[in-house]
Amino acid sequence: AETYGTQNAWQILVDDYVTTTDGTGIVHQAPAYGEDDQRVSEAAGIPTILSLDDGGRFLPAVGDVAGQLWMEANTPLIRLLRQAGRLVREASYEHPYPHCWRCRNPLIYKAVSSWFVRVTDFRDRLVELNEDITWVPENVKHGQFGKWVEGARDWSISRNRYWGSPIPIWKSDDPEHPRVDAYGSLEEIERDFGRLPRNEAGDVDLHRPYIDELTRPNPDDPSGRSTMRRIEDVLDVWFDSGSMPFAQVHYPFENREWFDTHAPADFIVEYIGQTRGWFYVMHVLSGALFDRPAYTAVSAHGIVLGSDGQKMSKSLRNYPDVSEVFDRDGSDAMRWFLMSSSVLRGGNLVVTEEGIRAGVREFLLPLWSSWYFFSTYANAAYAGGPSTDSGTAGSTGSGTAGADPAGYEASWRTDSADALDRYILALTGDLVRGVATDLEALDSTMAAAKLRDFAEALTNWYIRRSRDRFWAGVTADPRSREAFDTLYTVLETLTRVAAPLIPLVSERVWQGLTGGRSVHLQEWPDADAFPAAADIRTAMDAVREVSSVANALRKKQGKRVRLPLSRMTVVVPDAATLSQFEGILLDELNVKSVEFVEFRPESYDDHGLAQRLVVNARVAGPRLGKRVQQVIQAAKAGNWIEDDRGIVVQTPEGEVVMQDGEASLDSDTSVRPEGEAVGLLAGTDGFVVLDTTTTPELEAEGLARDVIRAVQDTRKAAGFEVSDRIHLVITFADGADARAVSDGFESADVAGETLAVEYLLGTKDDTLRGSSRSFAGGTTKPEREASFAAGAFANAGAFTVGVTRAEGRA
To answer: Which of 442, 120, 485 is nearest to 296 (CA)?
Structure first.
């Protein structure tokens, strides 16, 4: 003990790293052979004593087993203990131990002398500099990375290996004449050693063994016997990685001005585990050398896993074939899958074919379909006004039949007065602002979500609700021109906004729209060029919510979309504003009438809706404590009121006024009269009441609308253009089906919707309806004929559809 200064080593210490769940709960300390051991012992003033050399053999001081490998010394050490009468028990235990991942040889932890960066001297400044960095995901800033920086220790930068960047430090080989020289440039090395290290080819080479050949007499040794030799250590490879920002441009020897104007980096991206690796070492070196962050933003991604949730493996082939994905869905599909996922917010991502194809359905296909819709109808448009014939597209007359479409060249404009146009233009402005903000914050996940939501509004609302203005096909009509120009403007802008995430599809759509320079050479759109239209946007969002709820009610009640319903009541705040969109709701929901009723607190009772109070125990619990259970029971029993204080629950111990978030009102819509369905609106007071009773007239019109769908499918299968007019023959096997479609023919506008200039409808033996003109379609085999089985729609029997292209186009 006196020799090694270990007089105080024989004591019991306490530390959190020792637990009762692992081992016995008692562990001996060997400061030279364990990180925790050394930390605990040093804190107690116990020195670190080495007993093994660098080869793992016992030093001469351990006389009985000197020179033996640590693993081979077990047996003789046990024998010595037994001979000395100090062996209590000998047993074998299974215990995990480190092994070399290459050669599989057993390893030990051993304290070695190292060179350090004294990070603790400027740790507080590193914490301050972290505040200037934007992190994605946000929680890493003060979580994984922030906590690591706050607890940063001095950084050991030396490694006792052969390969690596040699540490440029020379030491005297005689402790009697100590001297340490550190070199920072080739010029300094050549000045002191008279030459530079060169390899066999004669090139300057700073690696071992060439750098180790440089020696010189120790200037501090008057005898001249000691020599300055380079220390054998090389730099931690993370030191190289952390030096990347300046080392890549040979700073400070070259490119000083370039580096000073380009640092710090705008952003870096790497695996989230690099919070203790690359992210950290760059932060340390930049903070130490330049007193600034190495980067201003970080995207920390997670791990991409195979389809089975495990690490990707070539041998297991547990991931989709990349070539097949590219061939089938395109590389943008994979790019969108990655950029829109949580993997870029630090989460893990399981790669599946369905996941990739979902991205195609959610955004790539809607974008492509919108462009295809625009180009198809713009190319088919007529530049002139309506013909003198009374018919137009959507009627049974000839309209512009016989004329060739000249097409319409749309213009970029945002001044349309149409409510739907103003709505989609306002959403486009929001999209430009929102995606720009997300991308600048390195949040491609949120940017993709905004694009996905916009595509939904564009395709499933704007285009579908504006289709009649494109269908008109006559661009002398101002409403038609506004529709074409608005859709062109929206698609042109959407393509520019989406280009960073889907560069190839965006480029193809852009070229189809504009024929101009690459979309990737365009400026980012100006959001201020689009109308705010807050009033229209708020109202249209409410209309979409009403539509969504009503369609959900239809589905729940088993009423198909093409079946007209008689009536719907919409009870909402500011009902008068929504009433201006009555036409949209009539068409969208396929109802004959809509009644708008101003919402009042009594509206629930007026329509027989019982309200329930739902207590959020997680929110209310911390404030109410044990009383929260009384409140829940009282709420279930209906013992509550709503007055100027808010929601007041009456419990056995008195009234409890609920605070924000502690409770919410819900309405019971499950019990309704026959033929009526009710749905609550999300995000606002109000509800929808849908009359689901049907009449023979409604059923007939519904079947007629089913037939329209069958005709459109047949037109598509025949390869007809959207503007082609047709001769139409519909033959039913069931007379009741034929009579129903005949009765609903006008109300469903079968001829107009299918562009049928002439038609025959009936059974094989009886014609129930035909156009006023004679035509050969009744006796001549149609260009295309399709059969539809009984029950394909609401039809009781089978029917056939025959279509023949008429002269001219609509």
So the answer is: 442
255: left (phi over 0), alpha (psi -120 to 50) or beta: left
Q: Mean pLDDT throughout 146-161?
A: 92
Q: Phi-psi category of 458—alpha, beta or left, where left has phi over 0 and alpha has psi -120 to 50?
A: alpha
Written as six digits, the tokens of 19 are 């637990």
| Calpha distance 311→319 (Å, rounded) | 10
pLDDT the model gives residue 413: 92
SS3 54: coil
Coil, strand, or helix at residue 37?
helix
How far is 276 from 254, CA to CA, in rounded Å?
A: 30
Contact 732, 741 (CB under 8 A): yes
Average pLDDT over residues 488-510: 95
Cα–Cα distance measured from residue 537 to residue 427, given in angstroms and rounded to the nearest whole number: 8
DSSP at 744: T
Listed in sequence order, the residues at least 6 apart from 720 whose beta carbon sits closer than 8 Å to its beta carbon are: 726, 803, 805
Confidence class of residue 497 from pLDDT cuts 50, 70 and 90?
A: very high
Model confidence at 394: pLDDT above 50? no
Residue type present at position 384:
G
Distance CA 60, CA 374 (A): 88
Tell me, what amino acid is at 695?
Answer: T
Residues 6+ apart with CB under 8 A from 535: 577
Beta carbons of 382 and 403 less than 8 angstroms apart: yes
pLDDT band at 273 (very low <50, low <70, confident <90, very high): confident
Listed residue (730, 728, 734) closest to 794, CA to CA: 734
321 near 307, Cβ under 8 Å? no
User: Cβ distance 404 to 372 under 8 Å?
Assistant: no
Cβ-contact 702, 560 below 8 angstroms: yes
Q: Which residue type, as a one-letter code, is found at position 182?
A: A
Is CATH 1.10.730.10 the right assignment for the domain spanning 353-532?
yes
Residue 374 phi/psi, 5° resolution?
Answer: -60, -50
Long-range contacts of 392-395 (CB under 8 A, 24+ apart): 392/472, 392/474, 393/471, 393/472, 393/473, 393/474, 393/752, 393/755, 393/810, 394/468, 394/471, 394/472, 394/749, 394/752, 394/753, 395/751, 395/752
Length of the chain: 810
List the one residue out of 805, 721, 804 whose CA is nearest residue 407: 721
Return d(Cα 210, Cα 232) in angstroms, integer: 12
Residue 120: per-residue pLDDT: 95
> CA-CA distance, 697 to 747, in Å (whole number)?
10
Residue with the bigger pLDDT between 559 and 8: it is 559
Element (H, E) at 569: strand 567-572
The answer to whether 741 and 796 are in contact (CB under 8 A) is: no
Q: What is the DSSP string of 776-803?
A: GGGTSPPSEEEEE-TTSSS-SS-EEEEE
Distance CA 680, CA 611 (A): 12
| Nearest CA-CA partner of 435 in 449, 425, 421 | 449
pLDDT at 100: 87
- What's residue 449's pLDDT? 94
Q: Which DSSP state fits 52?
A: B
Buried b / exposed e across 428-448, counting CB within 10 Å, b at 16+? bbbbbebbeebbebbbbbbbb
Instruction: Please report the pLDDT score of residue 158 as a whole number.
Output: 92
**Looking at the DSSP assignment, which residues form a beta bridge with residue 156?**
116
What pLDDT is attached to residue 776? 43
